[in-house]
Amino acid sequence: DNLMIDSLLFWLSVLLASNVLLIVIFWNNYGSRIQQLISRNEEKQQILDQLRREALELKLPKEHSPRI
Q: Which keywords belong to this entry (predicted)?
């Protein structure tokens, strides 16, 4: 019974270690690309926010504003 628990723990630790190894390898291969995509997305968001602010600052002349 004790042997079964020991072997179970052993295989669980092997599984965990291999998963960690795979994640490390994956991150080394693709991590920089993922970081670039994330930073590009943040830049896009900043540009959109800037455009929104500028659009709000623009005030149309009275004759072009919608009548309510």
A: Membrane, Transmembrane, Transmembrane helix
Backbone φ and ψ for 59, nearest 5 degrees, come out as -115, 120
d(CA 49, CA 43): 10
Q: At residue 60, what are phi and psi to the nearest 5 degrees?
A: -75, 150
Name the one residue in this structure whose structure tokens are 């669980």.
Answer: 12
| pTM for the structure as a whole | 0.46
Query: How many CA atoms lie within 13 Å of 25's alpha carbon, on the beta-carbon side?
Result: 6
- What one-letter code names the amino acid at 16? L
Q: Return the amino acid letter for 59.
A: K
Alpha helices in the chain (DSSP H): 2-57
- How many residues does the structure list for the chain? 68
